[in-house]
Write a structure and sequence with these properties.
Residues 8-140 form the Purine catabolism PurC-like domain. With 528 residues, the protein is an alpha/beta fold. 45% of the residues lie in helices and 16% in strands. Helix 16 packs across helix 21.
Length: 528
C-alpha cells in the first residue's frame, strides 16, 4: 500500500511524537521528505516560481519555523502555503525551545483542511533531523523496490484524492516517475513527444534521441535492425486512446534495470489514466492547449502551442466567464470572439466544464483593459446566462494562468455568499475572498477578532446592511449603493459618514478601509 504517515509514526525516531492535526489524513502515502527553514512564504514562493511548478502530493516537510518563530500570522501563511502546494504535512521540531507552543490559530487552520502537523517531543535539545530523514527515506526506498499487486489501484487512488484540476495524465506520469526514479515519455505513433517527465527533473538526458535509436530495434521484435548502443534500460508499451488511436509509452531508467513486470503495471496505470483524464489526449486543438495549461501538462502545452502557432508567452490576461445555462455556451463564445477581436491580436477562447476560459495577449487598444472587461459585462446580451466573470491582468506566464483558475475554483460558490448583488470581479477581489474564507474557518477566536473591527455597529442592522452593500456590492459607489438600498444618495452619504465615525476608519478611503472590507466579507460568510 506504500509508506503511509501512520507507518512512519511507528519508526523509532518518532517515539514520543504527537499528531496535533489531520488525523483523518494519516492514511496518506509519503514518498519524499524535505526540510523547510526558509519559512517566509513570500520568499519560498519566489523560489518555487523559478522552476517548473510541481504538485507535492506525497511530500512531508520538516521544520522548526525558526525564522518566523515570533510571527503567528507568518506561521499561518506558511501552513497555508504548504497546503496549497499539496504537501502531506509538517513535522515540527524544537517546540518549547524555538516556539513556546504551536499557536491555536495554526492548529485550527491545519485541522480545517485536514493538514497533518506532527509535533516531535517538546523541549528536547537532542533531536536531530537526520534521524527522521534516514528512517523515513529507508522505508520509502525499500517500499519502492517492490511493485505489488495493488500498485495500479494505489497509483490511481493517489491521483483521485487530488483536487479535480490536478487530476491529469501528466500528474500521474510525475507520480510514477518519482516512484520508479525513471524517465517516462508518451509519444504518438510518429514518435513525437506528447508528455515527458524526467528523473531527476533537471535531467539533460536526450530521451528523444534514445527513443528514436531504440524504436527501430524493439518494434521489429529485435530483428531487422541493429541493437542501439545505449547505457539506459528502455522498455515500451502501446497505450490506446478512447478513439482507438495508439500512443507509445516509454520507460527509460539510467544505471539499473527495473524489476520484472514493472512495465506491465506502469502501462496499466497509464492506460486507466488516459481513459479517465486523457480524453483526446493526442488531439491538436485550442481546447487541448487550454486543458494542458490548467492541468500543468508543460510538455504537451509547448508541443500544442508550436503546432497551433500560438505564442503562449504573449498571454498576459485571463477572463473566466462562468455560465449557468450551457445551451447558450456557443453563442457566448462567438460573442466574446467578435468583441475581443477589436482589442487583442491573441485570443484563445475555450469552454471547460461550465467555465469559458479566455486567454488574451497583444493588446492593441488605447483604453484601459479594465474598461474593456467592464464594457463587455455591461453590454453583453447573455448577462442572465452568466453567473460570474473574473478579470485577471498581468499574467506573467501560464503558471499564473493556472494558479488564477485554481484560485477561482477554490473560492467557488462562496463568491455569492460574499457578494450578493454582483457578477463581475477582479483578481484582487478573488484573492481577498480566499483570505476571508481561510480566516472564517480558523475558529471562534480569529473570527471574533475580525468582528471587533465592525463591533460598534453590529447592533444596528441598518448600519450593517448599509456598510455591507456600500463596500461589497456597490464597490464604494454612492449612486449604486443608493439604488440597491432604495434610498436617496444623500442618505447613503450620511450613513457612511456616521459609520466611519463609529468605526474609526474612513471607509471612503482605500488606504483605510481594507480591514473593514475584510471584516464585512467574513461577516457575510459566517452569517449566511
Amino acid at each position: 500500500m506504500g509508506v503511509t504517515v501512520k507507518n512512519i509514526l511507528q519508526l523509532p525516531s518518532f517515539r514520543g511524537a504527537k499528531v496535533l492535526t489531520g488525523r483523518k489524513s494519516l492514511h496518506r502515502t509519503v514518498s519524499s521528505l524535505s526540510v523547510l527553514e526558509v519559512s517566509n512564504a513570500d520568499f519560498s514562493s519566489k523560489i518555487v516560481k523559478t522552476v517548473q511548478e510541481e504538485w507535492y502530493a506525497e511530500e512531508i516537510v520538516i521544520s522548526s519555523l525558526y525564522s518566523i518563530k515570533d510571527n503567528v500570522d507568518k506561521q499561518c501563511e506558511t501552513v497555508q502555503y504548504l497546503i496549497d502546494l499539496g504537501e502531506v504535512g509538517l513535522i515540527l521540531y524544537y517546540v518549547g525551545i524555538i516556539i513556546p507552543k504551536v499557536p491555536e490559530e495554526v492548529l485550527q487552520l491545519a485541522e480545517s483542511q485536514n493538514f497533518i502537523i506532527i509535533c516531535m517531543p517538546k523541549n528536547d535539545y537532542s533531536l536531530r533531523y537526520n534521524e527522521v530523514i534516514y528512517e523515513v527515506m529507508e522505508a520509502i526506498v525499500l517500499d519502492n523496490q517492490t511493485i505489488n499487486d495493488n500498485f495500479v489501484n494505489e497509483s490511481l487512488e493517489k491521483v483521485s484524492i487530488l483536487p479535480e484540476h490536478s487530476r491529469s495524465v501528466e500528474i500521474m506520469l510525475k507520480l510514477l516517475s518519482d516512484r520508479l526514479k525513471a524517465n517516462i515519455v508518451l509519444t504518438n505513433t510518429n514518435l513525437e513527444v506528447v508528455n515527458q517527465v524526467m528523473w531527476p527533473r533537471n535531467s539533460t538526458l536526450d530521451v528523444v534521441t534514445i527513443i528514436q535509436g531504440y524504436a527501430p530495434y524493439t518494434m521489429n521484435g529485435g530483428t531487422g535492425a541493429e541493437k542501439p548502443d545505449i547505457s539506459c534500460f528502455v522498455d515500451h508499451k502501446i497505450i490506446r486512446q478512447k478513439n482507438g488511436e495508439a500512443l507509445y509509452l516509454f520507460l527509460i531508467k539510467e544505471n539499473s534495470k527495473l524489476p520484472g513486470k514493472t512495465m506491465d503495471k506502469i502501462s496499466e496505470v497509464v492506460q486507466v489514466a488516459i481513459n479517465l483524464w486523457g480524453d483526446k489526449h493526442n488531439e491538436v486543438s485550442e481546447y487541448a492547449l487550454v486543458k494542458a495549461i490548467i492541468n500543468d501538462e508543460s510538455e504537451k502545452m509547448r508541443r500544442l502551442a508550436h503546432q497551433l502557432h500560438i505564442d503562449v508567452a504573449a498571454i498576459q490576461m485571463i477572463w473566466l466567464v462562468y455560465i449557468q445555462d450551457l445551451s447558450e455556451e456557443k453563442c457566448i463564445r462567438e460573442e466574446l470572439s467578435e468583441y475581443l477581436s477589436k482589442y487583442y491580436k491573441t485570443a484563445v477562447i475555450q469552454t471547460i466544464d461550465n467555465c469559458i476560459i479566455v486567454l488574451l495577449g497583444n493588446y492593441s487598444y488605447k483604453y484601459n483593459e479594465v474598461e474593456v472587461a467592464e464594457e463587455y459585462i455591461e453590454t453583453t446580451s447573455f448577462l442572465s446566462s452568466i453567473s460570474e466573470m473574473v478579470y485577471a491582468p498581468r499574467m506573467r506566464n501560464t503558471t499564473d494562468v493556472r494558479r488564477m483558475y485554481q484560485l477561482v475554483n477554490q473560492v467557488g460558490k462562496k463568491v455569492h455568499l460574499i457578494y450578493h448583488q454582483r457578477k463581475w470581479f477582479t483578481a484582487a477581489e478573488i484573492r481577498s475572498m480566499k483570505r476571508a474564507i481561510d480566516l472564517s474557518v480558523q475558529g471562534e477566536e480569529v473570527t471574533e477578532e475580525w468582528m471587533s473591527v465592525i463591533a460598534p455597529i453590529l447592533d444596528d442592522l441598518e448600519s450593517v446592511r448599509t456598510l455591507m452593500v456600500f463596500l461589497l456590492d456597490a464597490k464604494g459607489n454612492y449612486d449604486v449603493c443608493a439604488k440597491l438600498l432604495f434610498v436617496h444618495k444623500n442618505t447613503v452619504k450620511y450613513r457612511i459618514k456616521k459609520i466611519s465615525e463609529l468605526l474609526g476608519y474612513d471607509i471612503t478611503m482605500n488606504s483605510e478601509f481594507y480591514d473593514v472590507y475584510l471584516a464585512c466579507m467574513i461577516y457575510r460568510l459566517i452569517n449566511n
